[in-house]
Amino acid sequence: MKFARTLKCIRFAAFVVLVAGVSASALASCGDSLAAIAAGTAAIASQSVDAQLDSQPSGGHSSKSSIVGLWHVQFAIGGQTVQEAYQIWSYGGTEVHNPNLDPRGGNVCLGAWKKTGQTYKLAHRVWNYDTNGNFLGTTHLSETLTLSNGGNTHTGSFKLDIYDPAGNYVNEATGSVTGTRISVE
């Protein structure tokens, strides 16, 4: 437990140094707000890490019993793969989704997840821009997943809702999603 608390302190100190560096290189007004947001986030993250470390078995955590980790995922509609992505599911209920798309149009999505019974539910949002920087609207991705194969794969469904710049509903797509855990060998 002492090692876990020391690790938490080291992570927090590294985060503070990172925030200070980002703030110093940003414009003054932007840097001040970034520092305030980062400080609040660090306090919340610190509390979350404390709770997680206190709930872990003494031998560490088992990544196989949780969705937490790095995943290679595929989204399919009618059996046809329409997108591949890497997803990071983090302790505390956040997720980062990096699809195999041209980064000039934006290819990083942020989400929140929770476990409900034996499934995991994800909601993440995307700001959509074209390659000229024009705002196209937002996309809301929802996933419902179940872990299988000892926690090394997951299967489930997704729903994608598309909205125009004014927030008006435009279209939706639904399909299946599968994932394979990426582990350090």
Descriptive account of the structure:
With 185 residues, this protein is of the alpha+beta class. Helices cover 28% and strands 45% of the residues. It folds into two domains: 2-55; 63-182, Beta Barrel (Lipocalin). It has helices at 2-25, 28-55, and strands at residues 69-77, 80-90, 94-99, 109-116, 119-129, 135-148, 153-163, 169-182. Strands 1-2-3-4-5-6-7-8 form an eight-stranded antiparallel beta barrel. Strand 2 and strand 3 form a beta hairpin. Helix 1 (2-25) runs antiparallel to helix 2. The longest helix is centred in the N-terminal third of the chain and has 28 residues, at 28-55. Residues 2-63 have low confidence and may be disordered.
Task: Summarize the helices and strands and which ones pair or pack.
Layout: H1 2-25, H2 28-55, E1 69-77, E2 80-90, E3 94-99, E4 109-116, E5 119-129, E6 135-148, E7 153-163, E8 169-182
Antiparallel strand pairs: 1-2, 1-8, 2-3, 3-4, 4-5, 5-6, 6-7, 7-8
Helix pairs in contact: 1-2
The CATH class label of the largest domain is Mainly Beta
Number of strands: 8
Beginning-to-end CA distance, first to last residue:
26 Å
CATH topology group of the largest domain: Lipocalin
Spatial sequence of strands, sheet with the most strands: 1-2-3-4-5-6-7-8
Number of helices: 2
Radius of gyration: 19 Å
